[in-house]
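Dear V.,

Thank you for sending over the compound details. I've combined the ligand you provided, zinc ion, with the protein sequence from our construct and run the structure prediction for the complex. I'm sharing the raw inputs here so there's no ambiguity about protonation or stereochemistry in the SMILES, which I know was a concern on your side last time.
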Amino acid sequence: MISRNRYLSKQKWDQLLKALPYQLPTSVIGHSVLNQPIYAHCLGKGPKKVLLWSQMHGNESTTTRALLDLFNHLHSISGAKLLEGLTLLIIPQLNPDGSSAYNRLNRNNIDLNRDALDLSQPESIALNEVFKSFSPDFCFNLHGQRSIFAAGKRGKPATLSFLSPAADDKKSLTPARVKAMQLIALINNNLQKFIPNQIGRYDDTFNSNCVGDRFTSLGVPTILYEAGHNSLDYDRNFTKKMIFNALITGLNAIENGDYLNYSTAEYNQIPENQKDYVDILIKNVDIKTDTGLFKNQELSVLYHEEKKGESVYFKPVCHRFSEHSELLAHSVFNADQILKVSMVEFAEGKTIDIF
Ligand SMILES: [Zn+2]
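Below is the predicted structure of the protein with zinc ion bound, written out as structure tokens.
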């Protein structure tokens, strides 16, 4: 299977911005390891300031695509009204090298979301400088997650996930953290009508080198947005719409202060994400391993993503097998519907031949 939308290189993004019928105010906030400019767009002159950044992990493009819809919305009459109350600083691709390579990491193989204290990379330094000079009231840290997450134990797929990162080891409810929780509770409440029971919450173990944890510990409410999976939408077009909704909802609530009507308890009621999904479950498979032959098994299969030209190829690989799988799947097949062979020689991570 192939997706033509998931790969969003710096070049492709630059072209998309150039094709807009209006010009975005653009500044350069730094340069990547490969000396590519990192762009930011400042919109609005309102009193409440929000800093948003996306594609700090280069292979997580869905939220960046949603930013294009956000730009268009902000150019409309209702969007312009929103900008009377807000000043937004938006960095669509914090990791342009990783975006062009379809890689989570930057060119030095560093995870920029584990570099908030070390500041060892030029991209991390650029974000940190912007954070200090812009002095935001809120931050939106925009990411994409794998298709393996359920919103709660054996729940529906987590199409969106959120986190109010901890500010310290004790996971204290600092004022910044409470605000982030309240805002997420509002977004969750408003989005349930579109994706009932498909919103999850991430584990809040503190890691001072994660950007969200770091900024929260410095007193700025930071919301982690994760674009997740829905049904067979591997292009993540539906998810992109939901992210756009969640962005507008969050920004409106910051502008009008409605999030203050929500509680941390409502945040805690959002189900925690569980790794309960695989991409494909194949029933009635005969499996051969080093230790023997196993008849009528259930084989779970994950897609591994590989960039091929301008597309992302989803390569099916063996994950696990058992008589009755505990895992849920986005697709379920009988062996004769999908396998090209009558028996699978199993090794974890091995590619399998499917129709
Ligand atoms: Zn990420």
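A first observation: The chain has ten helices and 16 strands.

Warm regards,
I. M.
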